[in-house]
């Protein structure tokens, strides 16, 4: 499970550009009858606009400047994106909100703090006018994502929450905040780990879902975020953990072997163990 921490993370997907979605039609097609549970959960009575995708996409270290390839990135990532502390200094990761409302910001702070005992550091919030390690925005509606580990330093925003509202129920709020902060401390998606991963993708079904309503991902984005798997030597990871907060919800129709996972909304024991282990080194 473990996701890889920081390190591993690596790079995952190639660049942010790889995850730009295709232009959405002005008039979306009618929802399918087999709406996914997570999408349905976000749909509110009376919504005139169909719910948008609720899938997190990892944001890889920028490749824009030097035509990074995943292969190149794999080489040194293991420790490259893990937060490190200066001797004698408080162990802290600074965070700021670029925008957003206090009620939602406060809920994020409370939930994100659940990672602190395992990282061994505090998230310290600074005013939006100050420099920070992690920069949070709410501007990109429908999309939630985060840069991985210390790659957050070079980007603003480095994390986006695209569907949190004051009325969002606690479980879904907690799920996405713990997940994105998991990326921010270096974790990658669980379904892309190599160790003991039982998922056999139904490629046609996965493409049919992600390339169309309500997601409109590009083919490259699907390859990078769904099918790509890290190699063992890239990760500081243990065995695949289906209960990880970094696991996607996977419906059985996405696999050829009947494998499926529900939405995980809290840190698993292995999430805690792995992060504690990595940040103790
Ligand atoms: Zn994610």
TrEMBL record:
Residues 1-17 form the signal peptide. SUPFAM superfamilies: Metalloproteases ('zincins'), catalytic domain. It comes from Chitinophaga filiformis (Myxococcus filiformis). Keywords: Signal. Residues 79-232 form the Peptidase metallopeptidase domain. PROSITE patterns: PROKAR_LIPOPROTEIN. Coiled coil: none annotated. This is M12 family metallopeptidase. Pfam families: Astacin (PF01400).
